[in-house]
Structure formats: structure tokens, C-alpha cells
Fold these 2 entries.
Entry 1:
Amino acid sequence: MGLMTNIFQTDILKGLGVTIKYFFSKPVTFRYPEVRYEMGERFRGAHILKRHEDGIERCVGCGLCAEICPAQAIRIETSNGEDRERIVDRYEIDLGLCIYCGFCQEVCPVDAVFLGKDYELADTDPGRTHVGKDEMLAKGEDPRYDHL
Amino acid sequence: MYLLIFTLKVAAIIALALGGTTFMIWVERKGAARIQNRSGPLYVGPWGLFQPIADGIKLFLKEDIFPTCADKVLFFLAPLICFAPSLMTFAVIPVGPHVQIADINIGIVYILAISSLGIFGIVMGGWSSNNKYSLLGGLRSAAQMISYEITLGLSVVGVVVFAGSLSLNDIVLAQGGSWFLGIPKWFVIPQILGFALFLVSMFAETNRLPFDLPEAEHELVGGYFTEYSSIQWGLFMMGEYVAMISISCVMVTLFLGGWLPLPWIGPLIEGLLPAGFVLYVMPVVWFLSKVAFFMFLFVWVRWTIPRLRYDQLMALGWKVLIPLALLNVIIAGVLKTFQIV
């Protein structure tokens, strides 16, 4: 440090210059609850179920997703209809158990289940983390998932 | 009639000081946030302007806790003693040509005397809390403020020599007119060294960073007000801000021409305004804008410079600033005697 730096304390002035530069720069704070995040294309949130164009559910109840699920969060109950076709009675996911790995989406042979964009899933009641078939089907109607 | 005007003046200046304090707390929080790339208070009122008021209400509603082993009387008195003197200095500060509560002929001496009373509050707070951290904070602040008061007093001597008066109103009036090229005849020009010394000791006097060793959150857990809660803590905090405003006012009065306008930009702006407005309001506006600069400087410096070590603080005070202040007195004397400036 030179003598002049010592006398006039130019380092302090330099520091003040830096801070004033930051003072006039835009804050990086993201005002989360007011401003929402724009989620990425491959974001993995709460599940949705899709229908075919003609309104029939895509899910055929094969149970592959329940089988591959590492957290065992998916529970499927099926029964036989009149033409010995398989009817999905229950399709339930416990979002509290789910680890959002996306295996169910990957393994699904008929492209019925996907991981959606919803992410604010916390609840004060552990019983409410179960999501049923109807709810997921309703979510699947959202235009955000039209491309799937 | 006289009494009424007097009372109104007192009320106006106290309102200005306390309103300024609330505003200052907002500026501090906002300034700190912006320097750190955050947004600061946003939700209470426009741009979070009412945040300090909300905080004040919260402090009022909180429980007053007296530590079991504390000296109750002193513990109760300390925040009041800390707060009151900083408000008392406003009595002699000329905010405008006609806006001054009392123009006493020893204004500067009064300010120096009153502002050193504030440390009693801090020392009492530290002592009566019966807590080692508080005591350390109180002792530090006593040592620090006494050391820097000498520099503060000596740097004022130069101004007094130039003005030839101890009255703050006379000091402001002595700074009227301009040198060549329209440079204002403020005492900051001949007394640049005194100005710098006053600036440094101003920070030390108000316990602000880089000299906030009495508080030293990281080592002393808040220093002298470790044990304080609710509005008693609030009084300490407000006392600090009021002291900042009052010392900035003194700074402006002594070195930057008080309520006098800038030589050419001033008349240029004032020419556009009605005469009565220029006579009564504009001086206050000039004064406040100058004070505002120093208030911002307080915030700016606080969030730039880290705290000094205790021995560095003492070394700076006794080995650098006091000799320089003495030199400044000699310079002022020489300049005045030989009519150089």
C-alpha cells in the first residue's frame, strides 16, 4: 500500500464505489408468492392422467407403474367388465411417498400417466396427500398438458 | 403570541427529528438491501415506507423484561438518558433563518456538552444490566466516545476561529457569499482537514460502523443493550438514529453553510419560485437536502466498511486524529491571523 493510498484512504473510496454500483443495480430477489416460477419443460411435479381424444381413459390398469415405483406410492385396483375388459376402479398416488423420479411416466406403455407442473403440495394433514383417479384426470384436461 | 410561535417551533422541530428518524430507519433498511442486491421492506405501505412504524408498534406491545439481578432504577433510566440528549441538540440548530428554537451565543459548546451526555445512558445501560457483555460494551463506548470527542471538539475550533463566534446562527451567516468561480464560501474549503476529522469522529460519536464496537453484534451480542427488550431497546435504537441526524445537522451547519443555498444553482432554482416560498421554505429545503446527503453517507459507509479492531480504533483516535486536529487548529490560526483566506 502506497503512502498516498494510506493518507487519502483511496481503498475506502474504491469500496464505496463498489457498493454504490450495487445500490443502483436491480435487486435479484424473486418475489415468490406474487411472482410465480416459470417451470421447465421437463419439470416433474404432481401426477396427471390423460384421456384419449374420444374421452376414454388412456390407462388400461396394467399396473407397471405401481410395480416399478421405488417408493411404492402408487396403488391400482382393477376389476373385469362385461366383455372381460379391465376397468380401473382405483388409481391412487400418495404424493407424500412419491419421490418424483418419473419412472411411472417412463414405464407407462399407453402414455397415460405423466408428472405435471404443480409443485405446492404441502399439507398440514398427512391424510390429504393421497390423490385419486378423478382428480388426476381432471388435471390432465389442463391446456398446459395438451401436447402430451 | 410569542409563546405560541415558540411552542409551534419546538413541535415542528421535534416532529422533523422524529419523522426523520422513522424515515431514516427505512432508508437504512432499504439502502442495506439494495447494496446487497435485495429489495428490502416492500409490503407495509408504499415501498415499505411504514415498516418502521409497524416495528415501533410491535416494540410497544412487547413485554418489558427486567433481568433479575439488574439495577432496576438505572436500567429503566439508561434508554431515556441515551435518547433525550440527542433530541436536545436540535434546540440550537438553525434549520432556516427563522427556524431555530434558541439562538444561544454558545451554541457549539452546548451541542458538545449535550451530545457527550448520551454516553452516560450507554454506560449506565451496560452497568445496570449486570451482564459481562453489556458491561464490556458500555466500557468500550465510554473509552471510544471520550477519545473521539477530543477530535470532534478540536475540529470545531477551526470553524469557530474562522467565524469568530460560538453561535450557530452567526457561523451559518459567516459562510455566505462565494470565492472566485462561484465556489461557496463554506468552511469546508479552508477547513478541509477539519471537515475530514469531523467526518471520521462523527461516525465514532454515533457508534456507527466502522466504529460500532460498543454494539459489536458478533462479539458482544449487541453490547450495552443485550438485556434490553421492547420499547426500551427501541429507545436506544431511536436514540442512535436521532444522534445521527443531529450530528449531521451540526456537520452541515459548521462546514457546509447550513441553510445557505449553493451559489449559482441556488438562485437559479429560487428564481422560478414565489418570493415568500423562497424566504421561508427554501432555506429549510437546502438544509434538509444537505443533511440527507450525510444521512445517506452513514448508511453507505455502514454497508461498505468492516468494523475496526479495538486497538486500531484507539490507535487511530489518539495517534492520528488528535495530532491532526491540533495541526488543524494551528492551520486555522495561521490562515486567520495572516488573512490568507
Entry 2:
Amino acid sequence: MSAEVIQLSGVPTTQGVGVDKIAFPSREAYVSLVDSLRSGGFEMCVDLCAVDFQTHSGRTLPDAVAPERFEVVVNLLSLSTKRRVRVRVQVPESDPTLPTLFDIYPGTEAMEREVFDLMGIQFNGHPDLTRILMPEDWEGHPLRKDFASGRVPVQFKEAPGPR
Amino acid sequence: MTENEEYEIPARVIERPSWSTKETSEGAQEMILREDTAAKELGREAGAVLRLPEGPVLDLSQIDVDRPDDETMIINMGPQHPSTHGVLRLMLELDGEVILRTKTVIGYLHTGMEKTAEELTFVQGATNVTRMDYLSPMFNELVFALSTEALLGVEMPARATWIRMLMCELNRVSSHLMWMATNGMDLGSTSMMIFGFREREMILSFFEKTTGLRMNNNYIRPGGVAADLPDGWQDDIKVICETVLERTYEYDDLLTGQPIFRTRTEGVGGMTAEEALALGVTGPLLRSTGVPWDLRRAQPYLAYDELDFDVIVGTYGDNFDRYAIRLAEIRESIRMIRQIADMMPSGDFRVQDPKVTPPPRGRIDSSMEALIHHFKIFTEGFKVPEGEVYVPIESPRGELGCYMVSDGSAKPYRMHIRGPCFVNLQCLPLLLRGGLISDAVSCISSVDPVMGEVDR
């Protein structure tokens, strides 16, 4: 791959600040796109996080992309060409699952666990998909927009219950 | 209770799993027994973390799955262990004194800061993020401010940019000094601990003079910095630079050439560049493996492209390299601070946009417009255009990124901080594998985790 062209094989893309390309693959094309970017010189997966767009549905997206409730955002970095690419995948509320990137970037292990823990998105094929930040017996996924802070009693192990 | 009454055992004690206790149990987050672990997962611990396209394929026959459980022991280290730098908890599987597997259990300091950020305006947000990485608060504020400004599209005055660089480099020195102190403490050098804290105090005093607070400064805000540098700041900087630089050579005498220190760090906790890249490790840990990746040089932000400095790299990727890199980075930062002090431009220390920057106190009494702006900014905050942005900077621990989504209101719709420690901690099982348990302390220290940022 030449350093000039980032091959994104028919996936809708946009430009952004501080990033060379923003790609919007479908869920089916997600892993193969990231895999081709990995072999195309993007050595590091810098960040993986998710956004819940439940209360902000009118966001700007390319025409070919249908907005869904969740969006998983992956930031990739190429150290050799000093480039960054962002991959944004739409994940529907009815089936919040996505294949794992662990086999391509082992460093996404903790990040995917964090997204699972706080946003409730399942990563199929992840070796150890357990809660990472919240207590094991916590109910719900706190970063979802319908998990409003201040409206639920704080849960703690062996707490005497709501006062 | 009378003597005749039998003591009733609480139900939860009876339910206790054989390998854990309920009181401290995090259930599935904990390390499980070898016989219950899949071979693929065991292989991950065995250095096959790296299933790179061109890398070696995991050979399952090499993994000792059938090892009887009574040969190994799972012990718990932390979360209150003094050398785990806060509330990091490690579960170690040991064969004698050799570590076979490690699992980090985190989340004991999780306070939901990303959720909190959605409730705070952009004006208030800096107060929240500064509490994440409490050893380098300036960097958290900077990354938050830069991402807000990228969405706003405002141009910073030169002096604001240079004051930010000055404070960040001072903060990098203080953070690395703190690391030198705790690392020395972990390896038994209490003198180093006292020295590190002593020098750091000078920098914190300067922070207090400038920002009003020693830590959690809330100094770098969207739109500039909170206040101009105090009178006579050049003299303070001169004294700090001279003293700290001189003292780094004392650290050389104390630690660098010391045989006990070298034996405990050289060749311990080795990592290769491929492993570091695959695990997303950044900062001094990545540079210790020989990859010259420093965002200040590779993707310059602020005005780092106008400064003359070296990117320090190591060779072996062991604990000694990481020590040497941090020590050399203190000297590089001092070199940068001296240049910044010489080149500091005059002018505004914050952007003169009444919609973003509150008016000075004096004008509120005389100008109705200023009063309205002041009231609006501190009640509603300023509105940020819709969009999303990811801004990375080089913190003392690696790439600190902020992914911010705005829906056009005065509060971030989503703010995610990519903490370098959170990602860097993933290399701990790799560093510890096959090492002695006494080296574990040295390895944890060399990763330099700050749990406030790991758990956020």
C-alpha cells in the first residue's frame, strides 16, 4: 500500500480534524476492514470506545450509513506513516453485538471489556468478556443514556438497601 | 451471646467458593483455576499475546494445560499493597517463586468520571478531568481543552499556547520525579523517595503560586489558561531548572551506577517492540523498546515543533531502560522549559472571545454586556458546535487522548478519555511472566500506573 492512499474498499468515508479518514463500515465489513488496515500499516489500535446516541439521533453521517443507537469508535494509528484512521461502526439497540478485534490487536482486550461493562455491547470471540470497572454484581450499563445518574439508588455489596 | 448459644455461621461464609472469599470476590473478573481456563487463554499468558499476521502461530501443545493445581498457587497482591501505586490488584499464579500467570483486577477507584462529564458544561469539565491522572493534572486539562477548542474552532493566542507548554513540561518533570521517588521506594531506596518528593515540591510550589493549587489545578481551560504567569516567574523557573538538573546527577550517583539497583532492574521485565505495539503500549514503555515514538515530535501539537529536544529511546525494553528514559526525559524537559522561558511571547493568555472567555472582574461592574456574558458563561456555559473529535497528546505515561462528541449544546454529549495507564497495564502479564515474585514490584513500578486514570 502506498503511503498516500488509504485503501478503504468501498466503505463510506469522511474527513475530520486531526485524522486522515473516518470510515463507516457495516458490521459485516468491520473486521475485514480493520484487518486490511492492520496489514496496510496501521500497527496500533490506540483507542476503542462507544457512544450511545439514544438522545441525539440527528447526527451527521454519510448518506449510505443508517444511524443506529450505538456507535463503536476505533482509532487506529500508523507509526511508520504518522497517520490516523477512525472507524465508526453502527450497532443496533436490538442486537448490541460486534465481533472482537482481539485477534488483530491484542491491545483491545481491556478496551472492549470496558465498552462491554459501561455500554453493554457484546464482543463475540473476546477471550474474557467480563466487567472490568464496575463491581461484578452491578446491574445495567452506566454509560448508556437511559442509565441516568442520580435516578438510581447506588448499589453496593451488602449495603443495607435504599434509605 | 451466651456461652451455650452456638455461634451461627453467616450464610455467605458457607457459600464461599473454594478458591476465593466472597468478601473480596470480583467473581468472573478474577483469575480462575488453570483447569477451568481455556488453552487459548492460557496461551495468551504464555507470550502468544501477539497473534500478529506475520507473527508466530500459537502452538497449543506447548502450553502446560494439564499441570495439576496443587503444583501452583494463586495469590492475591493488592488492592491495598503499598507497591501497587494505589488500588491495583494483581492475582498471580506462582510455581514456587516463579510467576506463571498474572491477572490485573481494576475498578476499585472507578468514580464514573466519563458519566459525570456528560452532566457538566464545557466550562466545568476541566475540574472533572483534572482529577483523573492526579500526578499530571495539566495534561488532562490540556487534552480536554484542546478537544473542546477543536470543536469550537477557536485559535489560541501564542502566549496561551506557550504557557500551556511551560506548565505541561513542568508537570512532566514533577510526574517523573514522583515516579523516581516511588520506584526508589519500591526497590528499597528510601533516600530516593525523599529526594524525589523534595524536588517535586519545588514545582508544586510554583503551581500553587501560579494556579492557586498544588494539584488538580483547573488551570488550562477551554479558551486559554486561567491566569497569567505571576511576576518574577522567570526567576522561579531558573531556580527550578538549575536545582532539578543538578539533582538528577545526584540520582545518577545514588541509583544509576549502584550495583544492587542495576541487578534488580537490568534484564527484568523485558518487552519487544512488536509486543508493545500489538498491546497498544505508548510512552516511556514503548520508547524503552527502541521505537522513537513521541507525539511531541511525531505529530506536534501546541508549539512543540519550534522547540529543540531529543526523543529518548532505549534498547532492551527492560526496567532499567524505562528508568533511564524517565531520568533523561527530566533533563530534556528542563531543556525545553529553558527554551520556553526564553521564547515566551507577550500578549493575551486567553482568547478574547466574549462567548467563550468570561470577562475580567473589573469590567463586570462597569459594563452591562460583560455582566450578561459572565452570567451566561457560568450558568449555561457556551455552546459547542455539533461534531466529534479525537485529540491525542503525549502525557508522561503515553498517549493521552480525548474523544469528544458534541450535540450542539453546552455539555459534552460523550467524553471519553483514552488513558495511557489503562492500556499500558495490559503489558503487565507479559512483563511478569517467568519472572520472580520479588521482581513483580519492580515491574509494576516501571509501568507507572496511576489508578485514578486507569479506573477514571
